[in-house]
């Protein structure tokens, strides 16, 4: 295979779809996962030779090895240039009230699948020898908001996983990046829009409502997906070399102040904003 190659999870919409579109437009061959083939229609009709839709639920452990072997065979000696672990969900609500199933699903989709998929494609990334893994983290992997705890736990874990892989892969020509977007305009917000409703009878109800309203405000200020794609472009062009990139309006807070402000100080600000 002569062209550059990428495997991206979650290309039905949002950041994954925009990244697949950008890479195909730049001449890459992209393997993109969707759960429903209909969701890949736009990309397959636009890039019939370059975009290959793979129907795969990232929670599916059983079929991963067959699927990755098939793709790795197609990639041949060139191997894989880029793996983008993008598929993700956001489980919202007070930790006390989240069901075991929802908590497990949060970790399975956002964390465990990244471990399984990365390991499945590592032989092809190592064979390439100049490849990148880009994990789509979040500012929730740097700062934990109340009632978004499950999501934050998953994204904090992804930060650590990114560091572990990056350091373990230093001898093998595979670099690992973690992007940390703040609010980005994608369907994920619609999918979680009513997520707080089911806690209306809980002890946390008044506070959850405040967080839901704050979320609505931040959606209005959400950045376009292109801001994430620009960073991905810089990484593959080797113009961006830092292991992590915050893509949010208040970068200074996430890159600097969160390290120097005490947790108790931040707790007090949260108390004023949400609990008073
Ligand atoms: N948008 C933001 O404000 C924001 C901010 C920070 C980080 N992020 C992160 O960015 C990533 C992409 O999210 P997005 O904002 O682009 O939202 P999105 O449009 O909802 O995209 C999420 C993608 O993940 C896929 N997905 C979810 N569960 C899956 C599963 N079990 N198996 C396979 N695919 C699955 C979805 O497929 P289906 O269509 O089949 O559900 C979809 O393609 C996520 O990791 C998210 O945490 C987003």
Protein model, in words:
With 276 residues, the protein is α/β, with parallel strands linked by helices. It has one domain (5-275): Rossmann fold, CATH 3.40.50.720. 48% of the residues lie in helices and 13% in strands. It is built from ten helices and seven strands. The protein has helices at 14-25, 41-46, 64-75, 100-128, 149-168, 188-191, 205-220, 226-236, 251-260, 263-275; strands spanning 5-8, 29-34, 51-55, 82-85, 131-136, 174-181, 244-247. The protein has a seven-stranded parallel beta sheet with strand order 3-2-1-4-5-6-7, with helices on both faces. Helix 1 links the parallel strand 1 (5-8) and strand 2 (29-34). The longest helix has 29 residues, at 100-128. The chain is globular and about 60 Å long. It starts with a strand and ends with a helix. NADP nicotinamide-adenine-dinucleotide phosphate (NAP) binds next to helix 1 and helix 6.
Short overview:
By secondary structure, the protein is an alpha/beta fold. Helix content is 48%, strand content 13%.
Features:
276 residues, 7 strands, 48% helix, globular, seven-stranded parallel β-sheet, alpha/beta, Rossmann fold, single chain, binds NADP nicotinamide-adenine-dinucleotide phosphate
Layout of secondary structure:
Layout (H helix, E strand, L loop, with lengths): L4 E4 L5 H12 L3 E6 L6 H6 L4 E5 L8 H12 L6 E4 L14 H29 L2 E6 L12 H20 L5 E8 L6 H4 L13 H16 L5 H11 L7 E4 L3 H10 L2 H13 L1
Parallel strand pairs: 1-2, 1-4, 2-3, 4-5, 5-6, 6-7
Q: Low-confidence parts lasting 5 or more residues at pLDDT below 50?
A: none
> Tally the helices: what do you get?
10
| Main pleated-sheet profile | 7 strands, parallel
Helix content: 40-55%
CATH superfamily: NAD(P)-binding Rossmann-like Domain
The ordered H/E elements are EHEHEHEHEHEHHHEHH
CATH-assigned fold name: Rossmann fold
What is the gyration radius calculated from CA atoms?
19 Å
Bound molecules: NADP nicotinamide-adenine-dinucleotide phosphate
* Terminal CA distance: 60 Å
CATH architecture: 3-Layer(aba) Sandwich
CATH class: Alpha Beta
How much of the residues is beta strand, in percent?
5-15%
The total domain count is 1
- What's the mean pLDDT score? 97
Number of strands: 7
